[in-house]
């Protein structure tokens, strides 16, 4: 049975008028499991218009009342966690346990945003001049939009929706068309939680829909997460059209292994961070950098032995360490990179190209793969593979390892494993990367800090969630006031000062 999905506009399920549909696959089997309508310009304009209609009244609700909608949403999700995780896993291909984490990390930002009465407080200066007070307000922008990737279909939409609507904006979400069911269900739950219709609209689609959001003057700000080429395109187009934009792109995250690190700890960290979710995480570790030949040899031996025990299976198999890739194109791309690495002279110690999962021969599976002797000039080092492929780049010294991570064009996350506090501190201060883990392989900051990569992993100046998200989704108005009971001064033709 192929399910038929819809857009969610003005609190209603609508198919739209484009007449164009995309297929949603089951990555475990390669079969089509749903059809999703793809919005054209007209469908997207309808969603924008609906958001514009709903926004002023929503912005007028006091912040505590808006926070209660978010709190109610959290309650409504609770009994649905398992069904949402299963739905997410079935469309994405990550394991059900991992899908729970995807949802949980998103809900933590909703929890953060329930603090909006406090987060929105402005500043106040009493008696800035004689009889003059100054205060600032944080006001919503109006209609804002989010364009999100396939790899975290619960977490990233929630990272954007929750702070945006808490601030009093209306939101148009354009989720990935590859796994659209969970964002759609989350929007339904927001409506059930008391969000007025139109404050959160979901339109599915591709470039035409995104371009409409980029061009329409009613859309004040755009948040994007996805691949770097499109992040850059969305950022340059949005800003050229006078919009705020924060656009996060691809990654190549290094894990530096110092000679004093506990290698058993390092191996477990690398396996989880490298192969979890089949490597389809922007914070996945894809490059291991052991320092010194002795560290490298010992690490590679341990990695080979441990990776051989990994179990790849359908995403609903509770014994599976990771499941299939999201689609046929992803499978071809990852296999293609393994071919490229071999041709470039990297040593393919473990080759997942021909993995077959019994009973799931048409699923998009690649086995855990390991390259040794990768060098910085190789494409498998420079480019994002986004699959279960770990590359070992051997560094002669700490400075070389630091230089590799700092010099890479991506700068999302990085980790160092060491027992030496001085090295760790030096590394975290000097490395040219947005998020750093010290003995932590995937340093995704908690909801009340902010998330964002540097260099070609992030375009824009404000990060996601945490205090930056409140700044991104509001603008500051500064009010200077005085209440003289009589006209005490005559006209002043000089620029006023507070002397
Ligand atoms: P993608 O760039 O293919 O798609 C992202 C979004 O852009 C989707 O909603 C898609 O429909 C839309 N889109 C696709 N083509 C478009 C076009 N030509 N014009 C306008 N919009 C278009 O990315 P993906 O494959 O869904 O996600 C994987 C990528 O996302 C990886 O590169 C990964 O590193 C990155 N990612 C980054 C972060 C981060 O925080 N830096 C987080 C998660 C994922």
Describe this structure in words.
This protein has 16 helices and 23 strands. It is an alpha/beta fold and 499 residues long. The protein has 2 domains: 3-249 and 457-479, Aldehyde Dehydrogenase, Chain A, domain 1 (3-Layer(aba) Sandwich); 253-438, Aldehyde Dehydrogenase, Chain A, domain 2, CATH 3.40.309. A hairpin with a 2-residue loop joins strand 6 (124-129) and strand 7. Helix 2 (63-77) packs across helix 7 and helix 4 (96-113) packs parallel to helix 6. The protein is globular and about 85 Å long. It starts with a strand and ends in a 17-residue tail after the last strand. The model has no long low-confidence stretch (mean pLDDT 97). The protein binds nicotinamide-adenine-dinucleotide. Residues 147-152, 174, 176-177, 206-207, 210, 225-227, 230, 248-251, 282, 384, 386, 412, 453, 457 line the site of nicotinamide-adenine-dinucleotide (NAD). It comes from Embleya scabrispora. This is methylmalonate-semialdehyde dehydrogenase (CoA acylating).
């Amino acid at each position: 049975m192929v399910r038929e999905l819809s857009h969610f506009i003005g609190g209603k399920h609508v198919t739209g008028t484009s007449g164009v549909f995309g297929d949603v696959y089951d990555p475990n089997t390669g079969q089509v499991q749903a059809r999703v309508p793809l919005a054209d310009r007209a469908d997207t304009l309808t969603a924008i218009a609906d958001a514009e209609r709903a926004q002023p009244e929503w912005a007028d609700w006091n912040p505590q009342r808006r926070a209660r909608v978010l709190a109610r949403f959290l309650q409504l999700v609770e009994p649905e966690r398992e069904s949402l995780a299963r739905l997410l896993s079935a469309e994405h291909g990550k394991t059900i346990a991992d899908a729970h984490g995807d949802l949980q990390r998103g809900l933590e930002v909703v929890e953060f945003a329930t603090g909006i009465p406090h987060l929105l407080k402005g500043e106040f200066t009493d008696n800035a001049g004689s009889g003059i007070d100054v205060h600032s307000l944080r006001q919503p922008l109006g209609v804002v939009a989010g364009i999100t990737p396939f790899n975290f279909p619960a977490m990233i939409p929630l990272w954007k929706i929750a702070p945006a609507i808490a601030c009093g904006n209306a939101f148009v979400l354009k989720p990935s068309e590859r796994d659209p069911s969970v964002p759609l269900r989350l929007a339904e739950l927001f409506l059930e939680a008391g969000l007025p219709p139109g404050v959160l609209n979901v339109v599915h689609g591709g470039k035409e829909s995104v371009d409409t959001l980029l061009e329409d003057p009613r859309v004040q700000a755009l948040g994007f997460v996805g691949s770097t080429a499109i992040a850059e395109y969305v950022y340059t187009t949005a800003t050229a059209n006078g919009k705020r934009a924060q656009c996060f792109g691809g990654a190549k995250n290094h894990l530096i292994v110092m000679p004093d690190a506990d290698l058993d700890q390092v191996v477990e960290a690398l396996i989880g961070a490298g192969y979890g979710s089949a490597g389809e995480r922007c914070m996945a570790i894809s490059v291991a950098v052991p320092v010194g030949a002795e560290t490298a040899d010992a690490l590679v031996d341990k990695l080979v032995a441990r990776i051989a025990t990994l179990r790849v299976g359908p995403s609903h198999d509770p014994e599976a360490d990771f499941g299939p890739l999201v689609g046929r194109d992803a499978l071809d791309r990852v296999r293609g990179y393994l071919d490229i690495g071999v041709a470039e002279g990297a040593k393919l110690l473990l080759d997942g190209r021909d993995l077959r999962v019994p009973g799931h021969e048409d699923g998009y599976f690649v086995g855990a793969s390991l390259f040794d002797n990768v060098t910085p000039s190789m494409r498998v080092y420079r480019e994002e593979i986004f699959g279960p492929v770990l590359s070992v780049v051997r560094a002669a010294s700490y400075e070389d390892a630091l230089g590799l991570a700092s010099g890479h064009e991506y700068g999302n996350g990085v980790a160092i494993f060491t027992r030496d506090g001085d090295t760790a501190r030096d590394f975290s201060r000097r490395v040219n990367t947005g998020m750093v883990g010290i003995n932590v392989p995937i340093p995704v900051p908690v909801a009340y800090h902010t998330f964002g990569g540097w260099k070609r992993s992030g375009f824009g100046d404000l990060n996601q969630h945490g205090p930056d998200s409140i700044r991104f989704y509001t603008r500051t108005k500064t009010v200077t006031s005085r209440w003289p009971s009589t006209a005490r001064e005559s006209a002043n033709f000089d620029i006023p000062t507070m002397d």
